[in-house]
Amino acid sequence: MSKRRIGLVRRLATSDGGFTLIEVLVAMGILLTVFLSAGGLLISTMVNSQRARQIQTAGELANQAIERLRALPYATIVAGSIQPVTTDPAVTTYNGLYYYKYQPLAWNTTTTASNQTPLDTWPWPQVKANGTTFTVKTFVTCHHSAFTGGANSYEPGCKDTSLGPTDQVLYTATVIVTWRPNGTSASATKQLVTQTEIFSPNGCQSTLTHPIAAPCEPFFYASADTGPGSITITSASSTDPAIADIPGFTAATLSLPRLTASLQSEQTANTAANGSAPLTTWTVSGTDSSLGGTRVAAQASNDAGSTTSPSDTESVSQSSITQVVASSDGSASLTLTQGSVSGTLRAAAQSLTGASCADTTGQQLVTTLPCSMGQLGAGGASAVLKLPSVGQANLLVLNPPSTTTPLAVYTGRFGATLGSSPDVHCASFLTGSAGCVGSEAVRTPGDVYLGGLPANVAANAPAGWGGYLISVTGYSDAAWSERGQTGAAPKAGISSGTLRYWNGSGYTSVNLAGAAAGQQLTSSLVVSSNSANRQVSLTATITTGGATATTVPSSGDQSNASCTSNTPCQGTASVTSFVLDLKYVITSTPDGSVRASLDIKVDLGQLLASATYQAA
C-alpha cells in the first residue's frame, strides 16, 4: 500500500464526525408523531371495545328479561306489574290509565303476597358489570291502543277481537336497558330496546301443564280411582251403649286399600300414582286413635322448571295390623284386623327406559308418552266381638281375593292404536291427530261374610244357617274411559259377583252383575239362648250397585270443532258398589238390658275412570 493511501485511512479513523442536531430533532419529531398516532388509535380501540362490551352486556340483560317474561305463566303476564311506575318519563296517564308509548300498561294495585308477580316494578333493578351500572326496565302493554276498560280498571282489557271469534289477548313485552358510559354526563345515557309479542288464546287449561306464554296445545286429562272403601262400626242407638262391657267405645273404621292415578298433558306433562294401605281408627271416651294407613306417591313431570323427576317408581308395603279394644278385665273385646298389602306405583312424563307402565291386566304399554299406573294386593279384614256369656262372634270377615293384583289403575296418553286389553286405545286413529288419553280402574276386593252369630248362640240357629246373614263372593268391577280426536265410548260394569242373604228359611242368591242398580233388599234373624240368657237380633239392608257411562257432548262427537275450551270432550265411567248395612243387637233376656248395639256398614265406594280432551 502506498504511503499516501495509508495516511488517508488513518485520518478517517480518527475523525470526530456524526449526526447533526437538526438531524436528531427531525428524527425525534417523526418518532413522536408515530407514537401519538399509535396512542390515539389505542385509546380509540379501547373506548370502542368498552362500548361494544356495554352494548353486548345490555343485549344479554335484555334477552334475559325477555326470556324470563316468556317463561312466566300467561296469567302472570295478564296480571301485570304490582304497581304503575308513575315516575318514569316514558309513562303517561290518561283517564286513570297508565300508558307506555301510547299503549296501555297492564298493571294492578294488589300488594298481597299471593297476588304479587315477578314482573319488574319501581324501583327498576340495576346490574353492575365491568364498572358500568345498567338499569333494566320492563313494560307489558296491550298490543295496540284499541282496548276496553274503565277509568278505575286495574288492568286494561287488551282484547283484540280481530284475531279470532273469541276474545284473543295479545300483549307487547318491552325491555329497555339503559346505562351511562363512564365519565359522561346524564345527557349521554345510552339505551337498548327489545320487544316480543306474548299471545295465548283462551282455552289453555292449567299453568301446571302450560307453564309458558305460548299458543295452546291439545289438552289431555285422565284419572282413575278404585274407590275410598271402608267398613264402619258405630252405635246403632242414640240411647244404648255400643258395647256395654267396653265403656266409652263409640266407633271404629277399617279403611280399605285404595289406588288413584292421574295424568295432565299439554305443553308439559304431569303424572301421578298414589297408593293408600289399610287404616284402622277407633274412638274410646272421645279420643281417636289410628294404626296403619301408609301412603305412597309416585310423581313425574317433564317441565324443566319442576323439581319432580321425569319418571318415578315407588313401592307400597304394609304389614298386617291388629287392634284390640277391650274392657278393663279383658272379658269383653272388639278385635279389628287388616291383612298385609304390597304393590307398585309408577309415573312417567316422557319416554321410559326399561319397564313401562302396565295396564290393569298387566300388559306393558310402551307408548313413549306420559302414563301412570298402580297395582296393589289386598290382605282382607275382620271384626270379631267377644262378650261374657255369649262368647265370640265374627261380625265381619273379608277374605283376601285370589287374584294377585285385586286393585289396579292406569292412565296413559296414546298416539296410535295399541293393545286390546281391556279395549283398543285410540279407536279409528287418525294419522296426524293428537291421539287420545285413556284411564282404567278395576277391583276385586275379596269375599265378604257379614253377621256371624256368637259361639254360645249359634247352636240355636235355624236349620240351613250357613254361619252368616249375608255374603258377597266373587265380586269384581271395572271402569274404562277414553277421549281424544278419536276414541271409543266409556264403559263400566260389574263383571261378576254373587250376593246371598238369609230369607228366613234359607238363602236367596242374586247375580250382582245382572241386578238392577239401587235395589233395596232386607234380611233379618233373631236367635235366643236360654243357657246364655242372651238374644241376638240381626237386621240388614242391602243396596245393589250399578254402573254409569256418560260423554260430553252426548252425541259422542270428538272432532276438534266439538272439543273446545267451552265444551271439552269428556268421558266418565263409574261403578257404585253394593252397600251392606247391618244392625247387630245383643240383649240380656232376664232384664232386657242392651249388651251391644252396633251398626256395621260395608261400602266399597265408587270406582271411577274419566278422560278429557280439548283441541289446541
UniProtKB/TrEMBL annotation:
Query: Does the UniProt entry include the keyword Transmembrane helix?
Result: yes
The alphabetized UniProt keywords are:
Membrane, Transmembrane, Transmembrane helix
Transmembrane regions: 21-43
Q: Which domain of life is it from?
A: Bacteria
InterPro entries from the entry?
N_methyl_site
Q: Where is the composition biased (Polar residues)?
A: 267-292, 299-322
Renumbered to this chain, region (Disordered) spans 267-322
Full protein name: Prepilin-type cleavage/methylation-like protein
